[in-house]
Every structure is written in C-alpha cells, then in structure tokens.
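At this stage, I wrote out one protein's amino acid sequence and its backbone structure tokens, and that material follows here:
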Amino acid sequence: MKHLKMAIGVPLLFGMLYGCSSDKATNETDKTTVKQEETNTNTDKNANTDTNTNKDTNKDMNNNGQAGTTENLPYNFAEFSLDVEYSPTESYEVDYENETKGVDVELDDDRNNVKLRGDEALAKLEPMFKKLKFDASTANDEVIDHVISVFGIDKNYTSFELEVKFADGTKKEYKKTK
C-alpha cells in the first residue's frame, strides 16, 4: 500500500510541478504587459495629437497677431545667457529662460558678490532687458557693444559670450575675446 501511494504520488507531484512551470506563467504575464504597453502607447499618441494641435493653433494665432507663445514674451527673446569673464575667479553671468513651464532667471556677479535667483534676479535685470533693442539680423559687434553698454560691463573683460534664442525661435551666439 505504501508503494502504491508512492507510485501514484510521485508522478502526480511531477505533473503538478510541470503544470505550474514558469514558462506558462511568464507567457501570461508577458501578454498582460504587452496589452498594458499598447494601451499606454495609444494614450501617449492621443496626448501627442492634442499637444500638436495646440502648438499648431498657437502658431496660427501668432501669425494672425493674436495670442500665442511669441506674443506672451515680454522681450524679443525667450532665452538670454550672458557670460563675461574677467579672470579665472571673477565673472558676470546672466541666465534668463522663458518657457511654457515658467520663467527661470539667475544673476551671478562675482565682482560685486551678488547672487540672485527668481523674482529678485528678474527685478534687477528687467530694466536692462527692456533696453535691449536688437534682433537676429543685428550685426554681432553692434549686439556686443549694446549689451556691454546696457549691462554696464567693465571693458577690462577677457571673454564675452552671449547666447540668445529670439522670440521667432532663431538662436544666435555672440563671442568676443581680448
């Protein structure tokens, strides 16, 4: 009787282990994962379609002179990054980015020990930004001289680097080394 239980029990045990093998469970899990990924992909495609539609609407509205991204900019640029080096340890840096998520502004002036961020930096820089009257077609030397004048940059700098992304999306770099 003991041998009979063993003769039936061992094959039964192997049958159960085979039935619960990891291949079958993995395949079912993989199918579920694929279905979830397909759902996420479809959702992402729908979200991208909506976003693209909004971008196209903004472009159309900008061309008509109505609301849109370029009209929402307070200056003729969306990004302004100025880096003036006086020595290896002294520099004057301004970073301004106006993006859909918000405005990011920083001012670092090593010579005057000034480090401002956010609203404080914008309050200090805004009068200067309003005085900037150049666009992508303005000559490089003219832009550099104008920025030096508006920001009161000491002419004893060793290098001047300015990167601007204009309201129309054009990006330009201005560099001068002494």
Notes: The mean pLDDT is 75. The radius of gyration is 31 Å. The longest strand covers residues 77-87.
